[in-house]
Amino acid sequence: MPRPNCLARLGLVVGSLAICLSPATARAVVISAASDAANLIAPGNDPGWNNVGRQSGASAVYLGNRWVLTANHVAQTAFHLTDGRSFDMSVGSAVTLKPPSDRFSSKAVDLRMFRLAEDPGLPSLTIADATPTGGEIVTMIGRGLDQAPGYIGWSVNARNQWTQTILPFANQTGFALGETQHMRWGVNRVAGNGSTLLQSSNTFVFSTQFDRQGMPFEAQAVLGDSGGGVFQSIDDSWELAGLMISQQTLPGQPNRSAVYGNTTFIADLSKYRDQILKLVNHAEPLWQNQVNQFDVDGSGSVNAHDLLLLMSELRQGNFAGKDLLGSPGLGDFGFDVDGDLRLTAQDGTRLLNALLNNTANPASSQSATGLVPEPSSAVLAAVGLLALAWTRFRKRFTGR
């Protein structure tokens, strides 16, 4: 039996995990073709090539209204497009999607959305409202590891020991993977009907099989394709049907290889469509700092002053509990921390929690190694006093 290979945050050890507790990175779109030069640029009938970009060492898809979708196990960094442009995430905007049957569940799925600090000027994508049917051809776009030229053969014995050999003596064939990564597209047919719950990632998926069906540019996801888009054509219009999140390899399969018999698992976006559209279609929170929603005063860093401004505004009652209408003028502050278009005590609670958890400032202000720096004892004391003051203030303001 093949075994599932889940996607990991910074890389994949192919074939080493059976059921993954933390998913391992899907790998790049490998093309079953002698040359894949034509697949390094947008296909003639383009489903959304320019909307697929890179985040960390993996892939992500721009949906519209500054929202991007990727796999939840992909590291949170800037979003890079194929045209060379890069866009920072809006700090605090990341949302991990929930199981479709219970939006209040504490369990996350392997899908995360975040908002860009700037608009990239790309068209919005249509999210599929139904699972692709079995046999339907889908187009897969991702930025994974490049494949080495030519086929490779292996002789696999009964103990699942793989030995590379010449093709006439091989009982398994496929491709080796290199070190570089490029955006690439390929096609494949959906296997089976309907979607199933992939237990390792708590995500509903459909799948494709890499099985030499004889179709041009048959594709398999490989390392770096996590978060890459899978598109279907409905009545000559393209829809985003899924997101590549993991693969299934064969027992004993060598690392950094793509072999006929592998499977790509694709998150079924029709199951999460309502959650996705609720975010994408949400009214623009004009009174929110779009670079960093916690930076109320727009100073470039978040500190106690931002919370004190919120407390002062709530006390004065100019906007408290009311809709934040119109656009802020010069000198106005970004009070709408949670983006619900109102100023309430919840805005202050969100800001205080971000300060306490040391997540209010962008990653660039943290240590070069990516570790969250430890606050000084003085800062911890100040934040502790601030938390106490806020708790008392909120109780007087809200009665709870």
Structural commentary:
The chain has four helices and 19 strands. It is α+β, with helices and mostly antiparallel strands and 400 residues long. The protein has a seven-stranded antiparallel beta sheet with strand order 7-6-3-4-5-9-8, with helices on one face. It has a six-stranded antiparallel beta barrel with strand order 10-13-14-19-17-16. The N terminus is likely disordered.
How would you concisely characterize the structure shown here?
The protein is 14% helix and 29% strand. It is α+β, with helices and mostly antiparallel strands and 400 residues long.
Strand proportion, as a percent range, falls in 25-35%
Rg, Å, rounded: 24 Å
Q: Helix/strand/pairing class, anyone? A: alpha+beta
Uncertain segments are 1-28, 364-381
- The total count of helices amounts to 4
Kindly state the mean pLDDT as a whole number?
81
Largest sheet: 7 strands, antiparallel
Give the N-terminus to C-terminus distance in angstroms. Answer: 56 Å
Q: Say how many strands there are.
A: 19
Order of helices and strands: EEEEEEEEEEEEEEEEEEEHHHH
Shape: elongated
Helix coverage percent? 10-25%
Lateral arrangement of strands in the main beta sheet? 7-6-3-4-5-9-8
